Amino acid sequence: MISVYRGSNYFEAQLLANLIEMEGLEVFLHGAALQGGVGELSALDHLSIMVNDADQSKAKDVVIAYERGDFILEDDR
């Protein structure tokens, strides 16, 4: 497995992992169990989204699309 994202925001990492899974890829969120130790651990980059090596390109495309804002929902107000 290879990392396609590193960060420290659990909710963002989980959202990205779900978006990647929606593409039919197997995802492992490495470091999620460390959330309880925040405050005693380094606060930077303790989460990694891991995918199979063969899925790296497709998963990175999802991360890039997310960072570009492609998944932003329009406000219906």
Task: Give a verbal description of the structure.
It is a single chain. The chain is α+β, with helices and mostly antiparallel strands and 77 residues long. The protein has one domain (2-68). Helix content is 32%, strand content 19%. The protein has helices spanning 10-21, 56-68, and strands spanning 2-7, 27-30, 47-51. It has a 3-stranded antiparallel beta sheet, covered by helices on one side. It is globular. The chain starts with a strand and ends in a 9-residue tail after the last helix. The relative contact order is 0.26. The model has no long low-confidence stretch (mean pLDDT 86).
Shape designation: globular
Q: How much is the average pLDDT?
A: 86
Biggest pleated sheet: 3 strands, antiparallel
Percent of residues in helices comes to 25-40%
How do the strands line up in the largest sheet? Answer: 1-3-2
Number of domains: 1
Number of extended strands: 3
In short:
The chain has helices spanning 10-21, 56-68; strands at 2-7, 27-30, 47-51.
For the structure shown, list the relevant keywords.
77 residues; globular; alpha+beta
Question: What layout of secondary structure does this protein have?
Answer:
Elements: E1 2-7, H1 10-21, E2 27-30, E3 47-51, H2 56-68
Antiparallel strand pairs: 1-3, 2-3
